[in-house]
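Troubleshooting entry. Yesterday's outputs looked truncated, so today I'm pasting the complete records for two proteins to confirm everything comes through intact. If either block looks cut off, that's the bug. Protein one:
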Amino acid sequence: SFKAETLLRRDVYKTIRAVYDNKEEMDSLSDENKRLVQQMELEYRRKGAALSEDEFNELTKLNLKLEELEVSFQRNIDSRDEKTLFTRGELEGLPDTYFKDREIRDIGGGKKYVVSTCSADYYLLMNHAQLESTRRAMFLVQNNRCTDNVHVLNTAIQIRQEKAKLLGYETHAEYALEPHMAKTPQAAYDMLTELRKNLTELGSKELEQLEQLKRSDMHAVGKIYEGFFEWDRSFYANKLSNQNFSTSNLRCYFSLPQVIRNMFELYQTLFGVTIVEMENPRVWHEDVEMYELWEADKETFVGHFYTDFFHRPGKSRISVHNIRSGYNDETRQYPVCAIVACFAKPEPSTPVLLHHTEVEMLMGELGRVFQNMLCKTKLAKFHGCKALEQDFVETPIQILKDFMWSPHILDKIARHYKTGESIPHDLVQQLQAAKSNGAGLSYLRQVFLAMYDLAIYNSADTVDANTLFNSMNTDISLISCGGTRTFVVAKLGYFIKHTLASKYYAHLWSQVNSADILHSCFLKDGIDMSEVGMAFRTIVLEAGGSKDSTDGLSMFLGREPNTRAFLCSLGANSI
C-alpha cells in the first residue's frame, strides 16, 4: 500500500527526525502537531527507517519470511479438514437437522455418519453430543490435524525475536506493545495476573457445578466419574445455561424499528446531539436511510451518517465504515460514515424481532458511528476509531454494549412490540444472572491465552509453543486435556498473525477499562447520565487519537483505572 511504502522511505524519516530532535521547533508546535511528529517518528523507526542499509535489507528478509509463515499456517488449517465417522447412537443429543443431507457410509454392514472438523459440524457436536467418548474423539481429531503448524509457529516466534533485536528491542512483546496503552509487557502482565488471582476462586466454584452435572450423568448410566476435561467444557456449560435461562423469550421486547428509535433517543441524550432523518436522500439502495447529526441546539452541524440494516446478497455481519474523516482545513470537513447490517426484512404484519445479543451488538456499532462522528481533531490522521490504540479502541464500544445489560437502560430501550409494555424486571434479572454464568472459567481462558501470548513473545530464550501451551492451559484455565497429546495451538491463528501477536491481552484491557468507566461513572447512583455522557464526549471521543488514551482515561475517571468494577461485575468479589 502507499502508506506501507511511504513508511519505508528513509529520506522522509531524516526530515521527520530533524524536526523531532529540534527542541525549540517541537516546543513551538501545538499539542496535536507535536503528537503528529512524535507518532510519525515512531512509525518510521518501527518500520526500520533508522537502520543501516544492510540492517534494513535483513529486516526486509525477516518480514518476507514472516509473511510466508503466516500464509503457510492458515493454508495448513484450511487444507486439513479431517473427517470422522459415528453411528447414530454415538451422536445421541444432536438435533434431527444435524443429520439432514449428511453423508453416510456403510462400514462393516452398519451405517455411519461423516462428521467433519468444520466449525458448523464441530461446535454443534461438542455442545450437544451426550456421549463423552464421542466428544473426546472429536476433540482429539480437531486438535491433532495441523501438527506441523507447531514448527511454523516456533519459527515465527524465533524470527520475530530476531526482528525485535534488530530494531533495538529486547523482545517482540516489548516492540509490539510500545505504541499502545499498556506500553510494556510488564503492565499487561500485571493486569492479567490480578485478573487471574481474583477469577480463580470464581472459576473453581463454577467448575464444581459443571463437575456435579457430569457426575450425575455418569451415575445415571453406571459409569465411574474420572474427571472433567476440555471436551466436556462446551457440553456442560451449554447444559447448565439451558437449565437456567433462555433469552429467546426476550425477542418480543426488541423490535428493530423501536430499538433503533429508542437508541437514537438515548444517544441524543447522552451526547447532546440531534439526529435528523433526511427526506429523499441520494443513496445506493432503497433500504438505506441517511441522517444529519447536529448539536442539540440545532445550529451547529456535525456530520452525516447512513444506516443500511437489511439483508441482501453480498452483505454479512454488522459493521461500521468510515467514509470520510472529519478534520479542519481552512474550513471544517465534516465526517461521514455508515452502519451496515444484515437483519432479515420485516414481514407485512410483524416487525423484525432481535435477539438480545443482536441488540447488544447494534448498540455497540451505533456507538462506533458516534465515536467517528463526534471526533473533533484538526488532523484526519487522528480522527475516530482508526486512530486509537489497539488496547483502547473497543473500550467506548464495550461501554455502550454493556448498557444493554442495565435495568435502567433496558427500561428505555425494550418495549413489547404489540402492547408497548416495558420489559419485566424479573426477566432483566434473569438476563443479568445468565451473563454471569460461567464467567469465571470463560475469562480464565482468556487470561490464559493472553498470558501465553506474552510468554512466547516476551522471552529471550527458545520456547516450544505447544509444550508451553498445554502446561499453561491446565495451570491457568483449570481444565485439562486428560493426559492426551494435543496440538490445540496449531489451529489458533491469534499467535502468528502480525496484527495480533503479543496483543491478545488488548481485548481484556479494553473490557477492564470499559467496566471501570461504566460502573464508576455512567451507572453510579445519583449520577446524571447526560452530564457524564457530555464529559465522556469532550474528554475521550472528541480527542480521537490526538492524545494518549491513558491520559484521557485518567482525566475522565479522575484517577488511575483499576480492575475492581470488572471483577465485581462478574461476581468475583474477593478483592
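Protein two, checking that the full record survives here as well:
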Amino acid sequence: MWKLKVADGGNNDPYIFSTNNFIGRQVWEFVPDYGTREEQAEVEAARENFWENRHLIKCNSDLLWRIQFLREKNFKQTIPQVKVGDGEEITYETAKTAMRRGAHLFSALQASDGHWPAEIAGPLYFLPPLGHLDTVFPAEYRREILRYLYCHQNEDGGWGFHIEGHSTMISTTLNYICMRILGEGPDGGRDNACARGRKWIHDRGGVTSIPSWGKTWLSIFGLFDWSGSNPMPPKFWLFPSFLPIHPGNMLCYCRMVYMPMSYLYGRRFVGPITPLVLELREELFLQPYNEINWKKVRHLCAKEDLYYPHPLIQDLMWDTLYIFTEPLLTGWPFNKLRQKALEVTMKHIHYEDENSRYITIGCVEKSLCMLACWVENPNGDYFKKHLARIPDYLWVGEDGIKMQSFGSQEWDTAFALQALLACNLTNEIGPTLKKGHEYVRESQVKDNPSSDFKSMFRHISKGSWTFADQDHGWQVSDCTAEGLKCCLLFSLMPSEIVGAKMEPGRLYDSVNILLSLQSKNGGLAAWEPEQLQNGWRCSTLVNFSQTLLLSMKYVECTAAAIQALVLFKKLYPGHRKKEIQNCITNAVRFIEDKQMPDGSWYGSWGICFTYGTWFALGGLATAGKTNKNCLAIRRGVEFLLKSQRDDGGWGESYASCPNEKYIPLEGNRSNLVQTAWALMGLLHSGQAERDPTPLHKAAKLLINSQMEDGDFPQQEITGSFMKNCMLHYATYRNTFPLWALAEYMKNCISLSSVGEKLK
C-alpha cells in the first residue's frame, strides 16, 4: 500500500536540504507490507468506484491519505448525524451539531507537523514530461501513473487541458507519449487507451498542430525538428535589463519557463533517438517524418488549443528572429555570444534551484530546469538534487499518481485554521489549533533570496508565506495575508492553549511584504511588484494563456491584504500607520473599480465570479463598507441573490473563467464549496439583518449534504489559475462548508428568527 510521510528528510539523502527541517513536506512511499487485507480492499474499492464514475465526477475524493490518517488516529465519528426536513427549522443545536461533526473530522485529518495535506492537481500536461524518468520510477509508480492517465482520458479518446476540460492536442499528445514510454504498446492501455488517443490525434491532422510548449517538448524528445519551433534565444539574457524585451521583465512564472527553455533551445538539445522514438514518429504524424516542411508548421495550433491567438506583431517578430537573426547569430563569430548566453542562463537556473531547494517555482519549471541540469552534466550534483525533490510533486489518489502544481500546504492550512477558529470550539479542538499555529509560525519565510537577489530579478521574501512550504521560498501576497491573519487571530488567544505568539518584528516583515506588492492602481500582485514593460504586452508566448506574461493585480490578493492589514492596524496601531491606511484606502478603491457590470467580481484563483465576489465583499466589509454606505456591496449582494439556485445553493461552471462571464453549472446543480463562498459573502454584507431567508436555504443545503462521518461529498473542480487551468483543491470540500456553517451560526441564527420556516 501507499503511505503518506510528513516532514520527511529523505533518509539522510545528501542531495536534499531544508530551511526548517522539512516542516510541511509531504511525500508518498510504497510500502509492500503496509495495511491489513481489509484496508487494502478499501483502497481497491475506492479505485474501482472512481473508475466506474470517472465521467460523472472528474475530481477524486483524495481518499488514500484520509483512510490512512483516520485509521492511524483511530477516528470514529461519535456525534450523530442531523438533517433538516422540509418545512423544518434550523435550530441552534442542529447547526452546531453539523458544525461540530465537520470540525472533529477535519481535526483528525491534520498531519503530525500541523498542516493539512491534500492534492492540488488537475491540469493534464503537468505529469507527462516526467515520463522520460521511466527508469527512475519503480514499477509501483509506473502502474499508478498509468492508472491516472486511463482515469482521465475523455470519452472521445483525448485528454483535456485539465481533468474537466475538452480534449486538446498538447495534453493528448503528451499523455499518449507518456503511456508509450511507460511500456504500453501502440494498441495497449486500459479500455484501448492508446489506440483511442492516437485516433483523436490523427482525426485532427497529427501533431504538427501542437501548440508552442508542445513543440518544444517534442523537439526535446526527438519527435519534432527544432526548426519547427519559433525561436527562444538565450541571448535575451545578455541584454541590458532596462530593455523591455529582457526576460527579467516577464512575470516570474513565464520567466522561469523561458529560462530553461531558452537554454535547451540554445543547445538544440535532442534526446537519444531510440527505437521507441522512431516508432512514435510513425504513429503521431500523418505523413513521413522526413518529408515534413518544418518551417511551415511553426505557427500551427490546433483549434482545440487556441485560446489566445498570437497577435500579428508577435508573428512578425518571431519570423524576423527565425529568418534573419538566428542564422546570423549561430554562425561565427556571433556563436561566441551564444555560448556566453548559455552560461548566463544556466547561472540563473542554478540560482533559482538553490533558492527553492530544488523545488523550483512550479511543476512545469521543475521538469525543464531538471532537464537543463542533466544536459549540462548528467552525473552532476545539480541533477541529483533535482531528483531528490521529485517526490515533493507526486501525489497518490484513488485515481493514481499525478503531478501537483507544487503543493498548497500553507494555503490550505491557513484556511483550515480560520475555519476551525470560527467554530469557537477551543475546548474541544485546542491541540489541533496549537499544532496548526506552530506550523504557520514555522513556515514563515525568514530570509530574502541569497546574495544580490535584485540582480537575479527576485523580490524580497523575508516575512512572507509561500503557497506550499518554507523551502519553496517564493513569496505570495494572499498566502502572506492569510498567514498573517492566522497569527494575529492566535495572538488574541491564551498562549497556554494555542502556543506562543509570533514576535512583532516578524509580523512587521509580513506587513512590509504586503505593502511592497501593491501597485499604483491599489491592487496587489501575487508574487512580485508590477514591472512588465510594454515590450512584452504585445506577446502571447503560449496559446492557452493571455496572462502568463502579465504582472496582474488580483481582487482576491487585494481583499485578503485588506483583511490582514485592518486587523494588524487594530492590534499594532503605531506601526507604519499612514502607509497602511493609504494601502487599505487604495485597495478598497481598486476592488470597487474592478466590479463587473452584473455586480460580481472576477476570481482568478477560484471558480470564478462566486469566488471573487466572496473575497471582494469580505475585503470591503472589513474596511468599514456596508450595504448602506457602499454601492459596490449592494450590487455584489444583488448578483449573489440572483444566482442562488432553487435548492439554496450556488453552482458555477469552470467555463466562466476562460469566457470571463458567469456560466452556471449544467442541470441547475449546486456546488457545496461555491455555496459556502456565497453564503459567507452574503454574511459579510449584513444579509442576516436584512433578510436571512437565502442564508437559511444555503445552510440547509450544507447541513443536509453532510455525510455520515462528517465529511462532505466531492463535487466539481473549484480552483483555477491563468484563466484556462483548473485546479482540484481536495480540502476545500471540508474547509469552506465548515467555515460557512460557523459563520452562519455566529451571524445569522442569533440575529434571525429561528422559528422561520424553510419552504
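Both blocks look complete. Sanity check on protein two: The radius of gyration is 26 Å.
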